[in-house]
Design brief:
By secondary structure, this protein is of the alpha+beta class. About 25% of the residues lie in helices and about 25% in strands. The chain has 2 domains: about 5-70, lambda repressor-like DNA-binding domains (434 Repressor (Amino-terminal Domain)), CATH 1.10.260; about 80-200, Umud Fragment, subunit A (Ribbon). The protein has 6 helices and 11 strands. It is globular and about 50 Å long.
């Protein structure tokens, strides 16, 4: 992360204290390590989607609370555009910009303005994603490499397709290594943009 998410970290710390758990006990229940909990509480890293869901179930607080605070509880969910589909090879058939009349899906509470979604088709991304899952991201991408490096992202290759990949540094300067679960890595690729996966809505 390029900036610390101090507010989210404090909400996680308060939830742990309310449960009267040490960081180690909290970590064991969430199936993570104590240093991971420490980094969350200091705002250096955000929980991934699976950990956030476990945190929500354990505390009986919605994921939106940890992301956005008290104001997110009770909000009316927005509808966001479904711009395409992701299938074999993690390739996305998508319009980079939402069109008028595009299909829509209910976004998570508090989801940022400007988000769009793609829907998983088939089982080529199983077991991480399954048919019908909705993946939310920002269509413009993010300029700061620190926001997407090491994370699962929707990426647009220079003069190439849009893909769902984990983004790592490539072996050549200015290039990236793209990893996926059921396809060979792509090394030394150039990206037009990258946008971290914000949310996964399970089918």
């Amino acid at each position: 992360m390029s900036t610390r998410n101090i507010a989210m970290g404090e909400r996680i710390r308060r939830a742990r204290k309310t449960l009267n758990l040490t960081q180690q006990e909290f970590a064991e229940r969430l199936k993570v390590t104590q240093p991971t909990v420490h980094r969350w509480e200091k705002g250096f890293y955000d929980p991934d989607e699976a950990a956030l869901q476990r945190l929500s179930e354990m505390t009986e607080l919605p994921p939106a609370y940890f992301r956005y605070g008290e104001a997110a509880i009770g909000q009316t969910p927005r509808q966001v555009s479904v711009v395409g589909y992701v299938g074999t090879g993690a390739q996305i058939s998508a319009d980079e910009r939402p069109r008028n009349g595009a299909a829509a899906i209910e976004a998570p509470l508090g989801e940022a303005l400007g988000s769009v979604a793609v829907i998983v088709r088939g089982d080529s991304l199983y077991p991480v994603y399954q048919d019908g899952d909705a993946i939310f991201y920002a269509p413009d991408g993010i300029g700061d490499e620190g926001e997407y490096l090491g994370r699962e992202c929707v990426v647009k290759l220079v003069k190439g397709p849009i893909l769902l990949k984990r983004v790592m540094r490539g072996s050549e300067r200015g290039s990236y290594l793209l990893l996926s679960y059921n396809a060979s890595p792509l090394d030394n690729v150039r990206l037009e943009w990258a946008s971290p996966v914000r949310w996964i809505k399970r089918a």
